[in-house]
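**User:**
Everyone, produce one record:

**Assistant:**
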Amino acid sequence: MAERLLRTAPIQGYVAADSNYDSNKLHAICDSRDQLHLVTLRRYGPGHGTGHRKQTAGRLRSIQLTENPMPAFAEQMLRDRNDIERRFAHLTNWGGGLTCLPPWVRTHRRVHRWVQAKLVLRGLKRSTAKRTYAA
């Protein structure tokens, strides 16, 4: 699915991903898109080499961004990605959240309305939640 998304999504810029997506194939897809750069930490960490295979320019650029002496840009991008993942988890992991779609929600129009309704409910839940503070 990552390959399909990277090939077809109408985006430019940087794509932050976790180390499971650190592959020459995905970096090559981004390289072919010209203005798309995949930024990942290396799967086996910075202490390991890159192996005996030829590395794509995008993968070498990702290594340079994440393992240079001042990696603040890449670190901030990966922190932002973690924040997005956490917020998405909060949207999906509560009783009325974006869990499995019921059988009657299958067309694009119905899925769109289903997701909108769930997001509205989540917003209402958050705005009416009682806050407790410990001293």
